[in-house]
Write a structure and sequence with these properties.
The complex is a heterodimer. Chain A is of the alpha+beta class. Helix content of chain A is 28%, strand content 30%. Chain A is built from two helices and six strands; from the N terminus they run αβββββαβ. Chain A starts with 7 loop residues before the first helix and ends in a 9-residue tail after the last strand. Chain B is an alpha+beta fold. Chain B has one domain: Alpha-Beta Plaits. Helices cover 35% and strands 26% of the residues of chain B. Chain B contains four helices and six strands; from the N terminus they run ββαβαββαβα. In chain B, the strands form two sheets. In chain B, strands 3, 4, 5 and 6 form a four-stranded mixed β-sheet that branches. Chain B is elongated and about 55 Å long. Classes of the chains: A alpha+beta, B alpha+beta. The interface between A and B is medium-sized, with 34 and 29 residues.
């Protein structure tokens, strides 16, 4: 309770870094016109949206690799993001809910521009 | 909704194609709710899985009919997408999915064997990746591709790169 919660953009950055570290996550999806993002401090974190509340929730829109179970992948992302936020984002995020949206898919071995 | 007649029943609940509209409802395979948040899978993802799974099968020349193939490749190039879902239609319900595929087959492969393999591959991939039960895969073979014919097609689409 002593430390303050991180700002929305900091929270989004922590979440994005944690999600990106999960094998099978190849990117973030910011919607058809780039509307899914968190802004703050002159930065823009794509594919992450925060919903304040108690407990707060966070939505991650992911581009994933072809092949594995998407529910297993979503569970791994949820665990990684919730763990990282509980550790780094302040006491308000100890019980954060993580909504995982599998927004797009990319075949293995293809890289480059987003959807 | 009863699942007892998988061969005739199409999925009843049609979800939207955009990620934003798939966020309602719960307790399903494509929409898994836990106490720590929900999981949703966009319809376009299911379509891409079907497209990639079909292309894994030997004997499949390409997906899409003649018109949708040409249009799809132009649209795909304009949008910069890696692979279009031309020739693939999906209907995704709460627990089930139905797939319609249009494809061309390489001569002289057995069309029925290729179609059966495509059906198996699509069902296997969608069920293992999304948990959705695939109730039907309807396959339309729209063309037969002869050896050497593929190059012509590539030259045609090459004009609009």
């Amino acid at each position: 309770m002593a430390t303050a919660d991180a700002s929305p953009v900091e929270v989004a950055q922590i979440a994005a870094a944690a999600a990106a570290g999960v094998p099978g996550v190849v990117g973030f999806h910011s919607g058809t016109v780039g509307e899914i993002a968190t802004y703050g401090g002159g930065r823009r974190i794509e594919g992450i949206r925060l919903r304040p509340g108690s407990p707060p929730s966070i939505a991650a829109y992911l581009v994933v690799a072809y092949g594995q179970s998407l529910h297993d992948l979503a569970a791994a992302v949820r665990q990684a993001v919730a763990g990282a936020l509980a550790e780094h984002a302040g006491p308000g995020f100890a019980l954060v809910a993580v909504d995982v949206h599998i927004a797009d898919l990319r075949a293995a071995g293809t890289q480059g521009a987003g959807p | 909704m009863s699942d007892t007649e998988p061969t005739t029943a199409r999925p009843s609940a049609k979800t939207g194609t955009s990620p934003a509209t798939t966020s309602s409802g719960g307790g399903s395979a494509s929409q898994l709710v836990s106490d720590r948040g929900t999981t949703s899978i966009a319809d376009g993802v299911v379509a891409k899985i079907a497209s990639l799974a079909a292309q894994e099968v030997r004997g499949v020349a390409k997906l899409g009919g003649a018109v949708s193939g040409a249009l799809g490749s132009v649209v795909g190039r304009l949008r910069g997408s890696e692979h279009s879902t031309a020739g693939v239609g999906v209907e995704v319900g709460e627990r089930q999915a139905a797939v319609d595929l249009a494809m061309s087959v390489e001569y002289p492969a057995s069309i029925h064997q290729v179609a059966e393999s495509v059906r198996e591959s699509v069902i296997d991939r969608i069920e293992s990746m999304t948990g959705l039960q695939v109730v039907e895969v309807n396959i339309a073979v729209t063309d037969l591709v002869f050896p050497g014919q593929e190059d012509e097609g590539k030259q045609d689409t090459g004009r609009v790169s």
